[in-house]
Amino acid sequence: MNRLISEVRRLGAAWMARAYPPVCLLCGAAGDDGLDLCRPCAAELPRPGHVCPRCGLSLGSDSAHPCGHCLTHPPDFDHAWAALSYLWPVDDLVGRFKFHGRLNHGRLLGKLMARELAPRVTRPDCVIPVPLHPHRIRERGFNQAVELARPLCRALDCPLEAFAVHRVRATPPQQTLSAKHRQRNLRGAFHVAEGFAPAHVALVDDVMTTGSTLDELAGLLKTRGVQRVDVWVLARVPDPARAHPEPDNPWQSRQTPPPRTSCCSKRP
Asked: In three state form, how does the secondary structure of the chain look?
């Protein structure tokens, strides 16, 4: 049955590609490799370089040791991986997806996340997208973490547990708060379903800044018996210490676009 479903999906994707060929969302050129992204623009997407093996924070040089913050204040999650860096044009794509309902942008980002992370991560028992409060889902119409997690789950043949954790308390958006207030903002915000305690889970979110949301969730899951919690995010903010509080609709980039030397610089 699974083989039949996979074949139907493959044929459907092939038909869609012929009927609606991909177009680069950044410059308007023809897409490449089944993505709404051309090859030059894909090559220019910002990707993490040397990172802390524990929290995924960008480091100046390669190291097998955690960063100083993880050594003194280790997070409750075990490992963090980011597909991209939260710089232009990734921040614009994320903003258009989350705050303007551009689901085609989300589809592209989900495919990029799966292609970048699936070969690097260890398959968990299940994947948990970071939940939104029901009020936020009604406003937005979808949970961006769920949409990003689906391609990863298909690539890894891993169960998606979208209802194992619930957000039971509405909180101000994390991006509106300073780093020291983010952890306090999340206390008591989540609830884990009774009896849910797989050995190894992966949390999925769109953007990781200080990691406070993911750390809070990881700690809660471990109190319920989960042994290992990994974090998979689409994009990591390179320098959280320099991240400024932003409004609830921060879709426009704070980054200065690169010089117009390639098709990726043709900003939509």
From this structure: CHHHHHHHHHHHHHHHHHHCCCECCCCCCECCCCCCCCHHHHHHCCCCCCECCCCCCECCCCCCCCCHHHHHCCCCCCEEEEEEECCCCHHHHHHHHHHHCCHHHHHHHHHHHHHHHCCCCCCCCEEEECCCCHHHHHHHCCCHHHHHHHHHHHHHCCCECCCCEEECCCCCCHHHCCHHHHHHHCCCCEEECCCCCCCEEEEEEEEECCCHHHHHHHHHHHHCCCCEEEEEEEEECCCHHHCCCCCCCCCCCCCCCCCCCCHHHCCC
